[in-house]
Amino acid sequence: MLFARLLRDPDVSRAGKLVLAGLVAYLALPFDLVPDFIPVAGQLDDAILVVLALRALVRRGGGERVALLWPGPRPSLDALLRLAGLHMQRDRGLERGRGF
Questions:
Q1: From CA 71, how far away is CA 97, in angstroms rounded?
Q2: Residue pLDDT, tens place only, 28-48
Q3: Single pTM value for the model
């Protein structure tokens, strides 16, 4: 749901949309870098690619768009932003932080 919202958002850059579209295409394809029948690693490659794509989008200035369009609970958004090296300031929006 988040990817669809970001792809339709006119404020997301063309490069950001290309990264997201590539990720959606990869996730939809029936083959993976690591086959899903391999325990843990098969699903982990998909999760890692999702995190890397969102991290790239957030670090290129799309963090406020992700926060605005985030469909899930606030704690999961906060975790994502920490992974991207950003944190929310109550009145000042997103700022660079040290992350983990």
A1: 23
A2: 887 777 887 888 888 888 888
A3: 0.70
